[in-house]
Amino acid sequence: MNVLRGEKISAGTAIGPLWLCERRGPLEVQAIVDVEQELSRFQGSKRNVKEQLKKMYGTAMEKVGEKKAAIFEVHQMLLEDPEFSGNIEELIRRGKTAAEQAVNQVGNELTKTFLDLNDEYMKARAADIKDIVQQLLSDLQGKKPLVMPEGKFIVAAEDITPSMALQLDKNKILGFVTTKGSSNSHGSILAKAMGVPAVVDLGYDFSEADNGKIVAVDGNKGIVYLEPQAETLAKLKAQVADEAELKASYSKLIGQPTITTKGRKIELGANIGQVSDLPAAVASDCESIGLMRSEFLYLGRETYPTEDEQFNAYKAVAEGLKGKRVIIRTMDIGADKTEKYFELSPEENPALGFRAIRICLQRPDVFKTQLRAILRASAFGKIAIMFPMITDQGEVRAAKNFLAEAKKELAAKNIPFDKNLETGIMIETPSAAVLADELAKEVDFFSIGTNDLIQYVLAADRGSGELSYLIRPNHPAVLRLIKKIIEEGHKAGIWVGICGEAAGDFSLTETFINMGIDELSVAPTKVLALRALIRSL
Amino acid sequence: MQKFTYTIKDPVGMHARPAALLVKTAMTYKAKGKLSCNNKEADLTRLIALMTLGVKQGMKVVVTFEGEDEKEATEALAKVLSSNL
User: Fold this and answer.
1) Which of A99, A118, A274, A363 is the most buried (most CB within 10 A)?
2) Which pLDDT tens digit goes with each residue over A204-227?
3) ipTM
4) Which chain B residues are within 8 Å of A74, Cβ to Cβ?
């Protein structure tokens, strides 16, 4: 048995025979006889590959739509690019190299150029170059296309390329395992879209000798077992059966209401971290976005995002949810999430430091830029706004004043926004929990941020391993506070939800419902499971 | 010569599909087009060069066209940029 560990991309368990969907082994390069002959061999293969790409584009248009088919048009252009074909011909002419070798060398150089760009998206494009190189090489070597085995299998490759993805019969794929790859690579995106288990970046070179070996993929843990022992195999087989049963029962719940057996309706939301999480959230059948973190717009860059950049992101989500509520949390920068341009001084105790709303209230320009962007997007769907890290009434009022100013500025310019936009706060500091009665009078809703609330209430750093006995959402102090927050919210006539990790802790769902919780917002992958649970309570 | 500046709004920056659209558009005109960013310059008809400029969200790119139909080319490219990037 070989135990391989990698990056988990798509959850679930799968067991089946391995199929290596690419050829491995050294190139059969012949000594070069004639430069003109090599040039014409290359041009011939280039024509053939271009024809194949045109066909793939046509197939992809029918199968997956224009947007996804575009990659094959891009491949055609890459193939024609002087920096690719031009350099290959140059190398054949000047270096008197065989066509295969020239294709390989130029391909490697370009792959390196993309990998050297400090950008995850561009790094993933190295796979596009490799894809074309592989197609050229197999045409040059006169190889027949790979034939898929009978029955279902687990696809193995160094990295899944777009042309592989298109040629694979989706009904036969149980899972994906790759030597390289990242969450941005084509295989990962495909695996997530198909909902099959996938683990990438395993660092193990699959060879032709591995073909047909039994492989078990544990996408929940990011572990791949090559030829698992009987005991491991039995355990994973049980896992596969459990998952299949659950999945069948969950898919029946799409479109069903989230309602307890006693008839209490709970709003079931999904949490998202960026615009690209939107498809997963929509597919999860969530009833709203209970938390859209806006930090991603501020991180990984050198300047503050502009109002328009933010507006476009918020608008995309508002439109994607088609009238369902999207709660956008204003930036929670600080502590471990920051960038240089914020110019924050190092702190002894960042969790208790200058962060989130505390920064916003002292930097009105930054705050109002975000507020205007959110307001403008509210004309395109149902948006609600939520302030994080609130400590007392003064902060809520100050934040609401900025919101009122932003509204005024837009109204003066006749820019449309939702005048009935709901305003809420996160309850994540002990102070806000204690003052819940006063705060409830200021806002339309509370959303309990259990992650921070737990660490603040128990005075225990959530990253500390030694304190894991303390850091738990079912600690009586935490549960009593949550109960109090819900009660105070209801007394003031506002709704109360939970958007922290605890919302997805199924052992507490019944407790929260008995306390009167109105909304629970969880990761998209947990939405249907939580609906199933609530409907059984 | 025609020239304009544009700020990239797309969160991913200059990704493959819009870059390919820019190339396709630029190729339909006789005028010679260039796009510069980060003190680097790329021929607008070269896809790999455009993709490897390192153009990201929030960055300013300068587009220039020189040649007989430079005006039309500039207008067409500005449209492609603003609706895709």
Assistant:
1) A99
2) 989 888 989 999 999 999 999 999
3) 0.82
4) 16-17, 19-20, 47
